[in-house]
Amino acid sequence: MENLVQEAIQNVNLHAVMPSLILSVAGMALLLVAVFSPRGKTAHIAWLSIASLIVAGIVTIMGWNDTQYGFAGSVQLDNFAAFFSMICIIAAGLAILMSDEYLKRENFPVGEYYPLILITTAGAMWMVSGTDLITIFLGLEVLSVSLYILAGFFRDQVRCNEAGLKYFFLGAFSTGFLLYGMALLYGVSGTTKVYDIAAYIQANPDTTTNVMFVAGGLLMLTGFFFKIAAAPFHMWTPDVYQGAPTPITAFMSAGPKAAAFAALIRVTFICLEGMQDHLTTVFWVLAVLTMTVGNLIALNQKDLKRMLAYSSIAHAGYAMVGLVAWNEIGSAGILFYMLVYTFMNMGAFAILILIGRSGEENLTLDGVTGLGYKKPMLGIAFSIFLFALMGLPPTAGFTGKFYIFAGAINSGYIWLAVLGVLNSAVSLYYYLRIMIFMYFKEPQEDYAWVKIYPATAVSIVISVIGVLYLGIVPGSIMQLARMAGF
Amino acid sequence: MTLALIPLLPLLGALIPSLFRSRNLNALSAGAIAGISMLLLLLQAPAVFNGEMPLASWSWIPAIGLNFAFRVSGFGFMFAFLILGIGLLIVLYARFYISADDPMGRFYSYLLLFMGSMLGIVLSENIMLLMMFWELTSISSFLLIGFWSYRTDAREGARQALVITGGGGLAMIAGFLLLGHIVGSFELTTILAAKEIIHAHHLYPITLILILLGAFTKSAQFPFQFWLPHAMAAPTPVSAYLHSATMVKAGVFLLALLFPVLSGSSLWFYIVTPVGLITFMFAAYMAMFKDDLKGLLAYSTVSHLGLITLLLGLGSPLAAFTAVFHILNHATFKAGLFMLAGIIDHETGTRDMKRLSGLWKYMPITGTLTMIGSASMAGVPLFNGFLSKEMFLAETLEPNLFGAFSWIVPLGATLAAIFAVAYSIRMVHDVFFKEPFTNLPKKPHEPPHGMRLPAEILMTLCVLVGLFPMTLAAPMVNMAAGSILGAATPDYHIAIWHGLNMALAMSVIALAGGAVFYLQRLRLFDSHRWCMRYCDGKATFEALIRGLVQGGRTLTGLMENGSLQRYIALLVGAVFVLGASPFFGSSVPFIGPLAMSSVDPVTLIMGLVLIVCTVATVVNHRNRILSIIMLGSVGLIVSLSFIRFSAPDLALTQISVEVVTIILLMMALHLLPRTTPVESSSVRRGRDIGLSVLAGGGAAALMLAVLSRPYDTIAGYFLENSKPGGGGTNVVNVILVDFRGFDTLGEITVLVIAGLVIYAMLHNFELTAPGIDALGRPWVQDRFPMILAQITRPLMPLALLFAAYIFLRGHNEPGGGFIAGLIVASVLILQYISSGIVWTRPRLTVDNHIIMAWGLVIAVLTGVGSWVIGYPFLTTSFTYLTWPLVGKFEVASAIAFDLGVFLAVVGSVMLILVKLGSMNSKDAEIVSASVQKAKEKKEGAH
Where do the NADH-Ubiquinone oxidoreductase (complex I) chain 5 N-terminal domain residues begin and end (chain B) (predicted)? Predict the structure, then answer.
């Protein structure tokens, strides 16, 4: 017993959790700072949060190609984890950049907001680097609980409360399934470490037909499907995305989703390889469902935030095509796509923040009528994001989608690629509709209330650069994704 | 490098024109950029005419096989020449056409952007690069068509064009991906050399269809022809450029480019030929009846594109040769005609042929030019259109794969040619002759010369090529066709006169028939009305979109109504389907090999009671008290089953937890309305019952499957090591405070935090409990019954003593800090319940926060203590002491830890319950006071 303890302590290796450690410590410290800051003053917390994100990012990048194992193999900070961590860091950074002025506008500048984002990000990092089901679960819960709070952050707005509560209820359900599944896997193999489970299955090949293993694997996956909002586990997304504070919506659609993808990939590709036949079917059915449901329902939405929510469901569907490929290119495709998606989607949400008014009354399609003329720069940026979401060159949306679909074709899933392309064609319709309203209609308003908040503008500029850079010269980043791929 | 600059220069320079304010500078800078590109292209001419193919390549995204590679093939050269040549003329034309109110700089920017992407398409060596330029033309044409932004028709036209061409482009991406997958490379040179591999591959059909989709949508081929006429809302320079010479030609360019590898199969013939033929005929027919000048030209363009497609579909080398020639001719006359239509529009204010007439007197030069263009369009001898049309008609007569029905092709071609003559005559006669005009918005006059110059140049070319084809066109056509066909290039002599043959006869029939048709047009106009209404694909397209939107709406209604119940129902249903999916049709038995153990009557009865109570809880959930009682029974049965299976410790824990939970529930429910209305329909309840039976059944089946298989447990380890390792015989307690001490520390921390959070949330939060029950009866007025109070007060010391006993024996016998904590909390809260807050509060003055905090501190200190003496955190040690009276007693450091647990439990449970109970306190006092008052009043009345 004591030996076990000693061993565990020796195996801690804090390097393996350094980025998330930095964020969680910074998060807790900033919580204290927030307590002692005068009400309404939150900018310094935002900037400190960004500083800690930058530090965590640098530490993550420095760990590239230098895999660290920690906590007796419960955590593994490899390229895969580092890449996904960077996505989460970028998403958190962009979300914070677009938050401060927004919170002031919405009359709710409360300091704990930023530490919560940091802690969510730390949770996401545990998910992406976890090689123990418990670590992954821990990360998932840290992430989820912080997001429940953030989703319902404006506690005097009914819609926001509804978002938080719905997310919490449905999230609790799905976590229950996830945990049940993990418990069953543990019951089969006697371990929660993903590599040990894989080894156990290798030693006992008949496990793959064991009811406990199969049902456990699938139940666990439902938890991840819920987090990536794959249909039919997506129901929470529109209501929550619409009700949550916009920067949080943007963040949720990128960072935590990427983290869930990471955990899904790691667990599936390592532990559940024995179920590959069945799982590829599951993945591709869900991928098609997700794309189709997302796009078809998005066609009908008048509310831009909700439309983007559905579009984000559809994009998760495209990314899932990479899962079907079940190979290195597939997972590299997901890595790359999630990065691309972070920029294009968060950029679009940042625009929504700028054109919104306090209380967010102005987020319908009509609300952007003629915006392209009254606010040309915003219009151009929005157009770039929309083109990227459509998947048109020279934006990153094209290269990302291309990479994913190429992987599917190379694995023989031609129909899946074709369906994906058809879905993109449907999506053209509703993305274009926004542009039509922006450019081809006489402006009804002068958009005098639209103020270009400097920090939000910075986040938009970063996103534009990201979308164009990854669209025009994606080679080097794609190479990194390939190195990180599973 | 110079090669790559040809397409890149307009792309990179696209911003430059919009930097200037002066309209002349706008046009000049755009012209200069296009001119430099043209020069660079001409630098390549010697090599290309020599039959070489200059290549330039840079690695770009190797991961996906995307190279930045350009080539100048003969065909590409011809196209690039057309794009730049006509582009330059358009730059000049637009300078005069675009009015001063419109942002000229932006127009030129879009134009250059488009020019660059178009050049990219024709000069790309890598098909993925080609793809990117292809989509860029979609985007930039979207911008150009929508240039007159506020017009509704411009808006719809632009969106329709982008949805269709963009969508087709996406299909083409898939096709290209497949092509690259088949060949193993995205380089055109490699692909073009791999005809056999491609044809033999099983993916050839789908590849072909996807690529054709891209080409057909771009070139407005049937059934996608409708977007082009609706894109005519664009400014005329745009139409002249995009819809005659460039963008719409991209589709046929692609067909011709991949002609060597994709054609030659029957599939190719059976798709491409009919599509070409139908488009050719149908669009020519529609063109006759368009009153809008540009609409007429648009349909004419579609028709001519159909002609080219038809030629490529026929598949013979000579047909391909003719197609190349016709691309060149059509671009020349059609660009000119669009410009002339623009001039007429510009100078008269309308393009409606019903209003235009008798312009000859006012615009003779424009009229002459229009006549030349129309003659060429109609295929009148001595103009360039005649040459390729004649060759085309000759080609249609060749036997083809339709076998016995081969005659359909020449018949259709002749018919279409008749329509073409008719609409060409109409364009000239209706506009320039007939009676004098009556109601034109402007008084017509000749345009400024700069505006007419481009059309003059193009029309002169039409005539010159028509007269001297061998000198002017043949070298270019031979070279272009040669680069496509390679060794198979026919040695063809383009000539005006081929002798009296069938093709000539068809031409004559077309000219004569067209004239007759035109004379009979008024009667025809009436008969084709239905066609105008129903044959416009726009309606179908819109219906399709409507259908999609409607489908989306239905789906939305089904899935997203904002109801959490529905979401959860969907979630549970989906999990069930997913979880059950691998077991359908699986050969592995679901139930494991272990036999079921026998059931004794007691267990069976307990199980049955459990089920009945659970069902009763659900059924009676509206009747709160009843359902709480049922829930309590469930908990009780569970405790009993723990005892039955020899786990007294668990049973004790369960019972105490049960008590506290029930108290908590009672307090919370007290604040809620007595009953909840029935909101769900019976259908929904039926669904929910079904779902819960499924989900519950699934969980039970899973449990059965798990338990009927042999498994190892970890119990053995703990049973063996509990005494020697932890010094206690109560394994549960040893696990809690020793083996899993760290977990427990975490748990009590969570408990403490939860207590604090609940306290914080309920603080300053007042709820009014209803003073009456569902039937309107007030609550008992005696809120604190004397008997209850009198019994509970002496109970307290007894319970405390019992708790101490439970606590102390915990390490070896059932008991421990957790249970003891719950017992103490229950008995304390009982005082509040039986005697009221007003009585209890002054007597229980210890702050629960402090108890709670001490609990945590003690637990942590115990852990730190073992650190201090050199062991890892929370290592326990124990020894035995012999106490007087008690006897031999074990003292383990774990007991201090357990004390921490005890205090934390007491503190947090009390904190929560007292807060919850006192939320209603003021209110309760007021209620009782008012009841008292009412009572007094009643008595007073007596």
Answer: 60-108
Q: Amino acid identity, residue B784? A: F
Whether the CB of B721 is below 8 Å from some CB of chain A: the reply is: yes
> Of B507, B525, B543, which marks where a domain is finished?
B525
Contacts of B12 (CB under 8 A, 6+ apart): B116
Same domain, B749 and B834: yes
Residue B860 in any domain: the answer is yes
Residue A232, preceding peptide bond in cis (omega within 30° of 0): yes
Q: Which residues pair with B71 in a beta bridge?
A: B55
Residues 6 or more apart whose CB falls under 8 angstroms from that of B589 comprise none
Q: Which of B503, B525, B547 is the last residue of a domain?
A: B525
Residue closest to B480 by CA, chosen among B326, B305, B262, B265: B326
Question: How close, in Å, is residue A183 to chain B by CA atoms?
Answer: 12
Whether A255 is covered by a domain: the verdict is yes
Instruction: Please report whether residue A423 resides in a domain.
Output: yes
Residues B383 and B482 in one domain: yes
Same domain, B16 and B67: yes
Residue B534 sits in the same domain as residue B490: no
Report yes or no: A209 at the B interface, CB cutoff 8 Å.
yes
B158 contacts chain A (CB < 8 A): yes
CA distances from B851 to B569, B778, B830, B858, B908 (A): 43, 38, 18, 11, 8
In our burial notation (b when 16+ CB lie closer than 10 A, e otherwise), range B66-79 reads: bbbbbbbbbbbbbb
B177–A contact, CB cutoff 8 A: yes
Residue B751 main-chain phi, psi, to 5 deg: -60, -45
Task: Give the DSSP H/E element, type plus range, for residue B41.
Answer: helix B23-49
Let me know if residue A2 belongs to a domain: no
> Do both B773 and B874 map to the same domain?
yes
Contact (CB<8Å) B167/A296? no
Segments forming the whole domain that contains residue B311: 264-525
Partners of residue A442 in chain B, C-beta under 8 Å: 150
Q: Do B139 and A214 touch (CB under 8 A)?
A: no
Domain count, chain A: 1
Q: Is A202 in the B-facing interface, judged by CB distances under 8 Å?
A: no
Based on the fold, state whether residues B192 and B282 are members of the same structural domain: no
- The per-residue pLDDT string of chain A (486 residues; one tens digit each, 9 = 90 and over) reads 455 556 656 677 888 889 999 999 999 999 999 888 887 788 899 999 999 999 999 999 998 988 888 888 889 999 999 999 999 999 999 999 999 889 988 888 888 899 999 999 999 999 999 999 999 999 999 999 999 999 999 888 888 888 899 999 999 989 999 999 999 999 888 889 999 999 999 998 888 888 888 889 999 999 999 999 998 898 889 889 988 999 999 999 999 999 999 999 999 999 888 888 889 999 999 999 999 999 988 888 888 988 999 999 999 999 999 898 888 888 899 999 999 999 999 999 999 999 887 766 557 888 888 887 788 888 889 999 999 998 887 789 988 988 888 888 888 888 888 888 888 878 888 888 888 888 777 777 778 888 888 999 999 999 999 999 998 888 888 889 888 887
For B126, the 3-state DSSP assignment is strand
Question: Which parts of B433-501 fold into alpha helices (H)?
Answer: 449-467, 469-472, 474-485
Number of domains in chain B: 5
- CA-nearest residue to A407 within chain B is B64
ipTM topping 0.90? no
DSSP, res B224: S
Closest C-alpha among A27, A14, A276 to residue A129: A14
Per DSSP, the three-state class of B1 is: coil
CA B15, chain centre distance (Å) = 31
| In chain A, residues 404-443 whose CB comes closer than 8 Å to chain B | 405-406, 409-410, 414, 417-418, 421-422, 424-426, 428-429, 432-433, 436, 439-442
Hey, what are B320's tokens? 């391909």
